[in-house]
Amino acid sequence: MMQTLSHHPALGHITTFGGHPVSCAAGKAAMEVLFHGNLIQSVELKKKRFAEGLHHPQIRSFHSAGLLMAIEFADEAFNKKVIDGCISRGVIADWFLFAPHCLRMAPPLIISEEEIRHACSVILQAIDAA
Predict the structure, then answer these.
(1) How many Å apart are CA 127 and CA 130, to the nearest integer?
(2) Same domain, 50 and 86
């Protein structure tokens, strides 16, 4: 099957927009929103709000690259309990394959201040319940 998909175009099955005009137009529109919608400029402030709202004795450290964020805990088992608690309370969280003791958050760039406060509150509740 892979041999069939590997030609004409080479590895064409793995492209995101695939060169199709409709897909390319959607990609262009997404880039325009990113650059002209003040989303990129708001990332640092939103990251700061998460960092300010996530203080707890069980949190060993907070890391981020933009809005891709990690909360480090002592071990994987505790992190799993926190993730499960977040999900049961409506906040999607996960872990990193290379750091299973770290909770991964990647909210959308359009997240509001109110949603950030809510997410931080839910994460802290999940930590307390773990």
Answers:
(1) 5
(2) yes
